[in-house]
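Tokens as discussed.
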């Protein structure tokens, strides 16, 4: 039978708490996305775009800074990369008013 030292036990507890924090953050964001999507307000931004407008659209619909959303996506990149790819595929872009056809 192996014994676990206090240092190893502390590392395991820290890793477990970190994992639970990431899971709760991801589930909270996904729940917010699902709630906003049901209302029909969630779309990719047509004005606040870096790559595809997903972070800008999320920020607009959740009424928060797009910089904050982008920082969260960058910090948790391995997890949020897949969420980002799915959102690019799922979200429609906002339609912009095109006044060039007016005669």
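Sequence:
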């Amino acid at each position: 039978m192996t014994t676990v030292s206090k240092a190893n036990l502390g590392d395991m507890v820290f890793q477990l708490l970190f994992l639970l924090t990431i899971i709760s953050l991801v589930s909270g964001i996904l729940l917010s996305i699902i709630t906003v999507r049901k209302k029909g307000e969630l779309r990719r931004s047509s004005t606040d775009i870096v790559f595809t407008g997903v972070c800008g659209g999320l920020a607009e619909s959740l009424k928060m800074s797009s910089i904050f959303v982008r920082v969260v996506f960058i910090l948790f990149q391995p997890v949020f990369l897949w969420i980002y790819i799915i959102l690019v595929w799922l979200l429609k872009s906002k339609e912009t008013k095109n006044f060039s056809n007016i005669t």
